[in-house]
Amino acid sequence: MDSEIDLKQIWLMIWNKKWMILIVVLVFLMLGSVYTFYFVTPEYTASTTLILVKSQSDTEVTTSDVTLNDKLISTYREMAKSDKIINLVLQEYNIKDISAGELKNKIAVTTVSDTQMLKISITDEDPKIATKIANALAEVFIDQVPEYFNLNNAKIYQEAVMPTSPSNVNHARDIAIAGIAGFAVSVLVIVLISIIDDTIKTSKDIEDGVGLTVLAELPDIDFDK
After folding, report:
1. Same domain for 142 and 92?
2. Do the domain assignments include residue 134?
3. DSSP secondary structure string, 159-211?
4. Closest CA relative to residue 217, chosen from 194, 207, 1
5. pLDDT tens across 137-150, in order?
6. pTM of model > 0.85
7. Number of domains in the chain
């Protein structure tokens, strides 16, 4: 019963402070808008998709071919973002305005779930550069596979297309998160204040605090009248 009463009191306190909560939420919404529109640098992600196929295209694909590709796909994923492949891309495509270390941080190589496909993604502030490097990385990787595995089973399934919208910016999401954060912060502060505040405000506070029954209460009297 006491917990129900406490929750009711907390709810009443939140309700009584609803205008303060609204102001805090509006402030957070404004801050979120400023952040997402003016402080987030847009970045673009371009992706090239590779598919693992049988080396000899004129014969049927067997179960052993599928099993082999399943085993190789994890190795290919690591190989595609290796230092050797990165350096070859920089050299062969004469890319000089980015270092190997910087490029490595821009690369993401993932496997498409339940398939024999690899997706090579490049994220950069310039969508043209992201697209160029994604396709270049795929080409260099495919050229290097036969040298190490005596296979020619990696093919480009879909080339990277220049992205038109940033991959790291979602104005509606960012503003919504800011609003939710503002609401959560304001409510948390109100609840903490209600927990910390041990001042006596009602007769019930006396009963709960010292265990004594209040026999009478004096009403507020306005002596100015």
Report:
1. yes
2. yes
3. -----SS-SS--HHHHHHHHHHHHHHHHHHHHHHHHHH-----SHHHHHHHH-
4. 207
5. 999 999 999 888 88
6. no
7. 2
